TrEMBL record:
The keyword Transmembrane does not apply. It comes from the Bacteria. Its EC number is 3.1.26.4. GO terms for molecular function: manganese ion binding; RNA binding; RNA-DNA hybrid ribonuclease activity. It is found in: Cytoplasm. Belongs to the RNase HII family. The gene is rnhB. Keywords: Cytoplasm, Endonuclease, Hydrolase, Manganese, Metal-binding, Nuclease. It comes from Harenicola maris. Its cofactor is Mn(2+); Mg(2+). Endonuclease that specifically degrades the RNA of RNA-DNA hybrids. This is Ribonuclease HII.
Length: 201
């Protein structure tokens, strides 16, 4: 077996009686701008796309191709939580809420959640898997579709607010992004609850 993700967690859940097993991951917890995005993916065991892995280990081109294959073969839900809600309830709660909504949307009967926290009020039993995007196929799939979806949102927002480099930095605090903040100021898509932004207001 390679060191990449496999379906052993899904197989264990299936042995326990579950049939709609969702892998769940989020992306965009750290950026200064844009939404936090979660995805839940229920893979079809008969047609799992080849090459699933932690989205951070894949090129943008490979991620895009895999995201297309995942959407074509699996049940997928993607949930974006915007900056207003992030600032109101904090980024951790916003990411957990996005994951919960994604699980609800795919009607999972078991969820495998990336990380060490299980969202409150999930509609089904769940297991948290630390570094799950590198261990669990369905979480790897969720990490890919979440990343591709959020990156697309940031490219759109970059067209509305050019200069911040969101089409390449995805809202993270790069040199280009900080330079634009000092030159052009804070946009409606910046997270005011994050210290670097709050300190500029």
């Amino acid at each position: 077996m390679t060191n990449g993700p496999d379906d052993s967690y899904e197989a264990k859940a299936r042995a326990g009686g579950a049939s709609r097993i969702a892998g769940v991951d989020e992306v965009g917890r750290g950026p200064l701008a844009g939404p936090v995005t979660a995805a839940a993916v229920i893979l079809d065991p008969a047609q799992i796309p080849e090459g699933l892995n932690d989205s951070k280990k894949l090129t943008a081109k490979r991620r895009a191709a895999l995201a297309e294959a995942i959407h074509a073969t699996a049940r997928v839900a993607i949930v974006h939580i915007g900056v207003e809600e992030i600032d109101r309830i904090n980024i951790l709660q916003a990411s957990l809420l996005a994951m919960r909504r994604a699980v609800e949307e795919v009607a999972a009967d078991f969820a495998l959640i990336d990380g060490n926290k299980i969202p409150a009020d999930l509609p089904c039993p769940a297991e948290a898997v630390i570094k799950g995007d590198g261990k669990v196929l369905s979480i790897a799939a969720a990490s890919i579709v979440a990343k591709v979806a959020r990156d697309a949102v940031m490219v759109d927002l970059a067209q509305q607010h050019p200069g911040y480099g969101w089409e390449t930095n995805a809202g993270y605090g790069t040199t280009v992004h900080f330079r634009a903040l000092s030159e052009f100021g804070v946009t409606p898509y910046h997270r005011r609850s994050f210290a670097p932004i709050r300190n500029m207001l």
